[in-house]
Amino acid sequence: MAQMKTAAAIVLVLFLSAAGRSQASHTCFGQEDSSECEEDALSLLQWPRRTGRQVSLEAEAERRASSQGQEELQLDEEFESKLEGEADLDPACAKAGIADITEYKHGNLVKSSSGQHFFPTLSSVDHLDLEAEPQSQVEHVLISFHGLSRDVDRYFCTAVGAAKKVGKYEKTLVIAPLFPKAQIKGSEWSKSRRLQEAVSVHWPQPDFVGGADSNNINNNNKNNNNNNNNNNNNASGGSHSSYKMLDELVESLVASKNSSLPNLKKISISGFSAGCQFVSRWSFFSMAPLKAKSNGIPVGIIIGDCSSYMYLDKHRPAASCVPWENTGPNHTCQHFQEPAAAQQEQCPQFDDFKYGFSRMPKKGSYLKSFRESEAVQAEVIDKFRLKDLRFLIGQNDACNCQFGKPSDYETLGAVCVRQGQCCDSFPAPNCRIMDARCPAMLEGSNRLQRGLNYASYLRDFYARKGQFWSPPVATFTGVLTHSFGEMASSPTFSSWVWGV
Predict the structure, then answer these.
(1) Coiled-coil annotation: which residues (predicted)?
(2) Long-range contacts of 65-73 (CB under 8 A, 24+ apart)
C-alpha cells in the first residue's frame, strides 16, 4: 500500500508539472519513503476536505475539457481510438460463434423533414422486415447499449453469448444500437433494401449519453420544437435526440407483436458504463416503458457500473457514505443532505445536468418541456418509480484503471494497484475513464459505491415524498474491475432477463 501511495504522489507531481504549475512548495518530490508526502498527495484531492490547490486542479481539468468543445463527458484521444470504424472483430464475437458481423447490420428508419435517416443497429433478427416470415419463436428482446468507445460489436456479441449460455438465444431477439460518431451511408452499413437510400443519424461528441439531438437532423429543424410532442417531452417529428431513438425502437418492437413478433413477451434493456448513464437517464425521462407495459409488453431496465447518476433534488450522500476506500458490495447509505455551503461554493455545478437538473441544457428537443414546465417535472418524477429499474453492479468496480487505450481497459484490479492507478486511492481530476469531477465525487469515490449510494438515494427521495420505491440491487463477481462481459454472464443478469 505504501508503494502504491508513493506512486500516486509521484503521479500527482507530474500532473501538476504538466499543467504548468510551480512545484516549489511541494517538498515531497523524490521523497519516496516520506509518510508526509503520502498524506499530502492524498489530502490534495480528498473530498470533502478539499484545498484551494485541489480546486485549482479541478478548474484546470474543467478548462481543458471546455477547450475541447465538449459540454458532456470528456475523453482522451487515445481512449477514443477504438470506434465503430475499427476493422477487427471483437473477441467476444468469436466466443459467441459469430464470424461475420455484417449479416446482423440493420436499423430503424427515422422520419425527418431533412431527408431519410436511420438509426443503426446490430440485430439477430430484422424485426422490421415486413416481407420476412413472422419470427414466432421470439419471446424476449434484449437491447444492449455500448459505452463511450462505441464498440457496438462487443456489446452485441456479448449479449448473444449470454443468451446462448442459458439456452435462450433462439427465443431472443438481441439488439445492440450504435450511436455513430460520423454519418454512415445505409448502402455501406446494411444489405437491407429499406436502408439503401438513407444516411445514419450521428453524434460526433459523446453527448448522446445526455439525450442530445442528432448532429445531422436537428440543425434543419430548429423551428419545429413546439410541434408534435411525443410522450411528455420528446422531440418533434424532425428533430431526433438519442433518447428518442430508443423510444422509437421500443415502440417498433411493441408494434411488431401484431406482425413479425407475435409471441413477444418482454423487452429487457441493459446499459453498462456510459451505456448505463444513457439508459439510466433515458429511463427517467421516457414514458416509452410505461406505454409498452400498457400494451402488454413489460420493459425491464438493467443498469450497471455508471460513472455518475442524475439526482432528483439537491440532496447527496453524506460524507460518511463517500469515503476514499472500497466499502464493498454491502455498502449502504442512510443519510442524504444538501452539500454544505462551502462545498457548494467550491463545486457550484454539482446539481447541473447530467448530475441533477437545476440547470438543464438550453438546446435539445427531448428535454424541452421538462426544462420549461414544473408540472411536467413533477409528473416525470412521480412516474419514474413506476418503471422496472434494476441495479447490477460489479463488486470489483472500486478501482479505476487509467490506462491509455481500450485494449488495456478491462484488466485485473491487482494491476491497477501495483501501478498506483487506482482512482479509489488516488482520485486524479484529469481522469477520462471514470468521471472524477467534483459533482461526481459527491456521489461516491468509485462506481460500486456510487451505484449503491444512488439506489439508497432513490429509496430515501421517494420516502421523503411519502412514497415507496426500492429498486432491486445486486452485485456480480469476477476477476475484472469493469466488464460488461462479466455482468452479462452473471446469474442475476440471466434471471432478470430470462427468468432462469
Answers:
(1) none
(2) 69/205, 70/205, 70/206, 70/207, 71/205, 71/207, 71/361, 72/205, 72/206, 72/207, 72/209, 72/210, 72/212, 72/354, 73/148, 73/206, 73/207, 73/209, 73/274, 73/277, 73/307, 73/435
